[in-house]
Amino acid sequence: MADPVWLPDVLRAEGLRCDIYPGAFERGHGDFGTIWGPFMHHTGSFGETPQGIAQHSSLGLASQLHLAANGVVTLCGVGVAWHAGTGSWPGIPANNGNAVTIGIEAAHNGTAAWSDAQYGAYLKVVRAINKRLGNPWNKVVAHKEYGAIQGKWDPGNLDMKLFRQRLLQAPDKPLVIINMIELEAKENPWVGVRKAKAGAAGERPVGRDGKGRFVEYDNAHIYFHPATGAHAIPHGGLFEAYADRKWETGELGFPVRDFTKLADGAVQSFQGGVLYRKDGQDHHVVKGVIGQRWALEGYEKGPLGWPTSDEIPNGTGGKYQTFEHGVLEWDPSGAVKKIGAAAKDLTLVNAAGVPLAVEAVDLIAA
Predict the structure, then answer these.
(1) Strand ranges (DSSP E) for 179-289?
(2) Of 58, 101, 123, 132, which is most buried with the most CB atoms under 10 A?
């Protein structure tokens, strides 16, 4: 499959205005092969411009599309863009989302409510790309889902599960009100019987802003927040680990992705990191630059194996974390000597779009 030079045509066919930034059809970090689908972001600012995405100071082309607050789309480039970084998602090669996804950067600060114009345009953009690729209309991944191990949270204040439901609804029909906790339980019958009243009356408010909710079921607690969506946290390991870390009020916050059962344990991504629990062992959180280096080593299937500690201060301003077969240590003071500003500036990346700071992590074999 060639580069998506068809993007302006399919977007305009959906009724969107699509501008073309100068040089877009010659811009990118190499050519596409097979394209998996769309990949959603926010820029962190309402003021970010198409120029900032097309000609990023350190990334070059940082996404194929820019989506303005008023719903106007700009094509920034058609080649591969450096937008995904380290992470994983079903169907996407681990740590290589750049090569197979079309990045969409919405000019949004991630905390404000999404305007009808921008949210509606986002739906049309994703739907148009999927129609052209022959995908289900709701095939899409968010940076906070793929890149949770990086600590990514974009697009912020946007429930991806609700967004996918909206993608399946006919654009010309009235929106259907959906109770996301009840939908999560319906789609995951393994959670068992609900131990509360039906509907909102049975949901317990939680979270610092009071907008979160949870409901207990036989085999899981389902947590919901409008910024992260509804996700079941299974009993018998992960939920107990989450409780040990003070639930949503602790470092983890709310879940941002469904849990995954591994061969000898389980994992689930949260706002504050990725929670791993190997069967019969204690639980640990992996995140940040050390987490990205561990991901590049192959996660728990790589030579380091499972984490055996959380991050620990090393006494000189850095951190280290132990694993079954080794240790990862990151120290900005030492890294500065090797790669200068790259030790702290995560916008400085290598040829694969991975922050150079990850290369500053020392791997010590056990």
Answers:
(1) 204-206, 212-216, 220-225, 229-234, 260-262, 265-270, 273-278, 283-286
(2) 101
**Ramachandran category for residue 318: left, alpha or beta (phi over 0 → left; psi -120 to 50 → alpha):** beta
pTM: 0.86
- Taking only the tens of pLDDT, the chain with its 366 residues reads 699 999 999 999 999 999 999 999 999 999 999 999 999 999 999 999 999 999 999 899 999 999 999 999 999 999 999 999 999 999 999 999 999 999 999 999 999 999 999 999 999 999 999 999 999 999 999 999 999 988 899 999 999 999 999 999 987 778 788 999 999 999 999 999 999 999 999 999 999 999 999 999 999 999 999 999 999 999 999 999 999 999 999 999 999 999 999 999 999 999 999 999 999 999 999 998 899 999 988 999 999 999 999 999 988 888 999 999 999 988 776 433 334 444 445 555 555 566 655 665 666 655
